[in-house]
């Protein structure tokens, strides 16, 4: 019989191996390259035009809140993109909105939720994710307004793209479109007989664009930025995922199931807290809630289910460890608390309305 410590180590190893197999090649690698490209190729003014503290809020928060519908990614892949945008000088509000909305409004996850757990819960998840992303971003901007004031002070004469770009705009757009296409196709459920040729063609397109429209120094900068983000973020994700696998062997998720039988502020808050601790790769949260917590069999109520759906993909112990490295302890703590509280509130409202 395996002793508890050995069992925990094996559980941590299994979780880590599954994570590496499911996410590194198809999700994390493309995401790091996209993040590095944002840092290396996108002009600072182009980013700040939409995400800077001085940008029109309806534009910056609107774009950030629907980002996940374009980038079908989970929390592990949105992190390097968030780090790139934050590093580039984004206002903290739009950056946090982007961070939350990326995995929360994931099109694949929304469709899967509606299909497996019901249309009502899928729709509630989509609407709540957009609204919560904007609200949380606005609150973060208000609480940490000194962050944005410091950005303004460092660039008082900022202008936005009045000059001519030497490179055709379509080349840059095509480059990013190809990278995003590689990410989306690679992370999809399509068979590899379709995935491989599509990814191969898109990779060739990236190579051609780099050769004919980008300078060698720019490509070198891209590689440096990609490596810089990867070495900061990837080890934290590995350690956090392994630790959570060990934790699950001592405290399996089924332990919380009896507390989720009805909608109450206690049950939705507990569900949001559980979501803030557990690492749930995108799409995996659906069978966890449907089967492990018993939503499809009527054991788990709708309120706690929505709270867990909203909090789980957006925050987790590994994610918070990475976010801490990017924007510090205080901002990370406030962000985590806001996600948990608003996810619980949304779950409570939904569960009360649906009865």
From TrEMBL:
<keyword id="KW-1133">Transmembrane helix</keyword>
<keyword id="KW-0472">Membrane</keyword>
<dbReference type="InterPro" id="IPR005524">
    <property type="entry name" value="DUF318"/>
</dbReference>
<feature type="transmembrane region" description="Helical">
    <location>
        <begin position="304"/>
        <end position="326"/>
    </location>
</feature>
<feature type="transmembrane region" description="Helical">
    <location>
        <begin position="92"/>
        <end position="114"/>
    </location>
</feature>
<keyword id="KW-1003">Cell membrane</keyword>
<feature type="transmembrane region" description="Helical">
    <location>
        <begin position="20"/>
        <end position="42"/>
    </location>
</feature>
<feature type="transmembrane region" description="Helical">
    <location>
        <begin position="233"/>
        <end position="251"/>
    </location>
</feature>
<comment type="similarity">
    <text>Belongs to the UPF0718 family.</text>
</comment>
<keyword id="KW-0812">Transmembrane</keyword>
<feature type="transmembrane region" description="Helical">
    <location>
        <begin position="333"/>
        <end position="353"/>
    </location>
</feature>
<feature type="transmembrane region" description="Helical">
    <location>
        <begin position="63"/>
        <end position="86"/>
    </location>
</feature>
<dbReference type="Pfam" id="PF03773">
    <property type="entry name" value="ArsP_1"/>
</dbReference>
<protein>
    <submittedName>
        <fullName>Permease</fullName>
    </submittedName>
</protein>
<feature type="transmembrane region" description="Helical">
    <location>
        <begin position="263"/>
        <end position="284"/>
    </location>
</feature>
<feature type="transmembrane region" description="Helical">
    <location>
        <begin position="126"/>
        <end position="144"/>
    </location>
</feature>
<feature type="transmembrane region" description="Helical">
    <location>
        <begin position="170"/>
        <end position="187"/>
    </location>
</feature>
<feature type="transmembrane region" description="Helical">
    <location>
        <begin position="194"/>
        <end position="213"/>
    </location>
</feature>
<dbReference type="GO" id="GO:0005886">
    <property type="term" value="C:plasma membrane"/>
</dbReference>
């Amino acid at each position: 019989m395996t002793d508890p410590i050995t069992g925990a180590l094996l559980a941590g190893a299994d979780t880590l191996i599954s994570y590496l197999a499911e996410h590194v090649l198809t999700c994390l690698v493309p995401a790091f390259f996209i993040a590095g490209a944002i840092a290396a190729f996108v002009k600072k003014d182009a980013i700040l035009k939409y995400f800077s503290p001085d940008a029109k809020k309806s534009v910056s928060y609107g774009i950030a809140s629907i980002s996940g519908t374009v980038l079908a990614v989970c929390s592990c892949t949105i992190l390097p993109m968030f780090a790139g945008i934050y590093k580039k000088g984004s206002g903290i509000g739009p950056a946090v909105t982007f961070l939350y909305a990326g995995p929360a409004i994931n099109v694949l996850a929304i469709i899967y939720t509606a299909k497996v757990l019901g249309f009502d819960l899928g729709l509630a998840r989509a609407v709540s994710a957009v609204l919560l992303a904007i609200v949380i971003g606005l609150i973060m901007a208000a609480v940490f307004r000194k962050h944005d004031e410091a950005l303004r002070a460092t660039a008082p004469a900022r202008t936005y793209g009045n000059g001519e770009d030497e490179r055709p705009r379509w080349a840059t757009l095509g480059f990013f479109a190809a990278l995003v296409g590689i990410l989306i196709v690679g992370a999809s459920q399509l068979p590899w007989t379709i995935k491989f040729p599509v990814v191969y063609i898109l990779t060739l397109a990236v190579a051609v664009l780099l050769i004919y429209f980008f300078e060698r120094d720019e490509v070198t900068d891209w590689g440096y930025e990609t490596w810089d983000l990867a070495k900061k973020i990837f080890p934290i994700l590995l350690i956090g995922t392994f630790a959570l696998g060990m934790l699950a062997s001592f405290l399996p998720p089924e332990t919380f199931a009896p507390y989720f039988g009805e909608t109450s502020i206690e049950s939705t808050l507990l569900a949001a807290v559980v979501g803030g601790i557990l690492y749930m790769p995108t799409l995996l949260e659906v069978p966890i809630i449907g089967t492990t917590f018993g939503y499809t069999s009527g054991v788990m109520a709708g309120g706690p289910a929505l709270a867990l759906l909203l909090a789980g993909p957006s925050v987790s112990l590994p994610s918070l460890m990475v976010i801490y490295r990017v924007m510090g302890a205080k901002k990370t703590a406030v962000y985590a608390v806001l996600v948990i509280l608003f996810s619980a509130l949304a779950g409570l409202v939904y569960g009360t309305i649906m009865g």
